[in-house]
Structure formats: C-alpha cells, structure tokens
Write a structure and sequence with these properties.
It comes from Ectopseudomonas composti. Keywords: Membrane, Transmembrane, Transmembrane helix. GO terms for molecular function: endopeptidase activity. This is CAAX prenyl protease 2/Lysostaphin resistance protein A-like domain-containing protein. The protein is mainly alpha-helical. It folds into 2 domains: 109 residues, no CATH class; 139 residues, no CATH class. It is 67% helix and 5% strand. The protein has 10 helices and 2 strands, in the order ααααββαααααα. A two-stranded antiparallel ribbon has the order 1-2. α4 runs antiparallel to α7, α5 packs across α7 and α8 runs antiparallel to α9. The longest helix has 32 residues. The protein is globular, with a radius of gyration of 18 Å. The termini are far apart.
Length: 252
C-alpha cells in the first residue's frame, strides 16, 4: 500500500478525535510527532535507536502518559462479574493512535514466510487452554460464565484498539529485531518478558500471566509468519476471559 494512503490511518484518528473533542491541540502536536517517528524515523535513524524510541513512545501512548488525550467513556462503570469490581468501557484515543500509526507502518513491510503452520496451530490451542487455566489456578479470576450486555462494542474496542496496538508494538516491531539479534528463543522470551513487564501496574502475578500469554502470541506469530494470527489469538484469550471468567479481575 502506498505511503500516502497509509498516512490516512493516523491522520484520520487525530482528525476524528479532535473533532469529537477528545484530542486537544497539544495532543495533535504530540500525536503527529509520534506518528512521524513511527512512519519516517526508520529510514533516518539507526535501527536500534529508532526501535527503542518507538517502543518508549508506544508505551507512553498506551499508558496514557502524554497530555492532550481524553478517553471516550462508552459505558459507565458496571458490574460484569459478582466477584470483580465495576468495569467501564473506554476508548483510549492515544492507544488507538498508536495502533493506527503502527498499522500504517506495518502495511508497508513485506510479508514473512510461514515456518510451521502445525506448530502455530498447536501453540494457539495450548495458549487458549493454558492462560485462562493458570489464571484460575493462581486465583486471579474464578469461573464466571456470562454473556454481558454490549459484547460487540467491547469486542470492537478490545480487538481494534488494545490488542492491535499491543501486538503491533511487541510482536510486529520488537520481536523480529530481537530474534535477528539474539536468536529465536532468546528473542521470543525477551519480548514476552517485556510484554509482561508493562502489565506490572496491575500486579506481579498478572504480569507473570501476561508474560506466558505473550510467549504464546509471539510463538504463534513466529511459526505462522502472520501477525494477524497473534492478533486473533490475543483477542480470543481476552474474549474467553470476558465470557468465562471474573472480569476484569477477581477482588481479593
């Protein structure tokens, strides 16, 4: 896809967020700078420095550390599970911008060959079983099957904002570079560890589960050669969490 068409993704995000009142002028400036770094910095900066800068910028956007962005509350806090705190669904414009800017970058890259589709399928099945099972086993969540109201809206926001941005940042941007430099298993493990580390604000136990899940997502991408497989797997794990377990997390 030509660059001028890919640029429309972050540009439209910034324009729509500003028009709706969720992105202030300072957010426009910072968001434009972040998008320019992602889309143009790779050719103008050393590869390692560019990836570190994009990773730090991405974490800052995903963690809502940059000023000028306000979330869009799509539903007010309400009880999803009787053993969990109330949950509010919010669309985070800074994380959406990260996803659209990284997607614009990713669409300009050549596709990767599949290494082993049977291994990719096996990893997906094991991840879908192991991550929810371990979460129940360590007490982070309990068995709470449900069909919550607003499921489609939740799925659109979770898959199209959170999952897409995280997979593009960690598996799309970071993992291939670490594998090239360190080798397959060290690169996969380090990427998963960094993915888990950004979840430490929730709890160390949650970060450990995120590391295990991240290893599954990374292996699915590595074996299939398709980032879409990792995105789908990540989204499926999150969906199982919502439909079958305490959501967002069990109250201790």
């Amino acid at each position: 896809m030509p660059l001028h068409l890919r640029l429309l993704l972050p540009a439209f995000t910034l324009a729509l967020g500003h028009a709706l009142g969720f992105i202030d002028p300072i957010g426009l400036v910072l968001g434009t700078a972040a998008s320019a770094l992602i889309l143009f910095g790779e050719r103008r900066l050393p590869g390692g420095a560019w990836r570190v800068l994009v990773l730090l910028t991405g974490i800052a956007l995903a963690a809502h550390l940059l000023p000028g962005f306000s979330p869009w509350t799509l539903w007010q806090p309400r009880q999803i599970s009787p053993d969990a705190p109330p949950y509010a669904l919010r669309l985070s414009w800074d994380k959406l911008l990260l996803g659209t800017a990284l997607l614009a970058w990713w669409l300009g890259r050549p596709s990767s060959p599949a290494r082993s589709l049977p291994h990719a399928i096996l990893v997906c099945l094991l991840t879908l079983l192991a991550v929810p099972g371990l979460a129940v086993l360590v007490g982070l969540v309990a068995w709470q099957p449900k069909w919550p109201e607003g499921l489609l809206l939740w799925l659109l926001v979770n898959l199209g904002v959170a999952v897409l941005a995280e997979e593009l940042l960690f598996r799309g941007l970071l993992q291939p570079a670490l594998i090239r430099r360190l080798g397959a298993w060290p690169g996969l493990l380090l990427t998963a560890a960094l993915f888990g580390a950004v979840h430490l604000p929730f709890s160390p136990l949650f970060a450990l589960l995120a590391t295990i899940a991240g290893l599954g997502y990374g292996m699915a991408f590595h074996y299939s050669g398709r980032l879409s497989v990792a995105v789908a797997l990540h989204g499926a794990v999150n969906l199982l969490h919502l439909l079958l377990l305490s959501y967002p997390l069990r109250l201790v």
